[in-house]
Amino acid sequence: MSDVLTATAFHEAGHAVIGFLFETRFEPILLDDIEGKRVPGPTPFYVTQAMQNLRRSEYRQAIREDLIVAMSGAIAEERFTGQLNEEAARDDFHFITEALWVMYAEQSDMHSADLWREARRLVNANWLVIERVAAHLSEHRSLSRRELDTLLMPRSMLSG
Question: pTM of the entire structure?
């Protein structure tokens, strides 16, 4: 497997594991579909809908979690490769930037540095699990929700 695909496996494993921790929506991962490009993050429609609901506290927590999940892919890839690949995380960064600007405009108490710190803490705390998921992705080149559930059981191995 190429270095790029292995790095991509870690990137996607970071999203999957931290997303699982927050019980967010999961899309099956196919590494063959990602080679040479990244799977887009949340759609502009999602961002618009999420931002319209920002003032409601139950949505603010969900947006916070979505931002941390978006950040966790780049952080996991960076931990594996030793460098941040901004081009590879372009879609994630676009979503993060858009969401943070809207939150700033809404005078939210969420701050970028705090979210990045929390995402890094969660990736580090769950690194062995991320490695397990990345190894599966590297070997099988895909990951379904059922496979993710199996890889992450018992749930007590996750650290929040």
Answer: 0.81
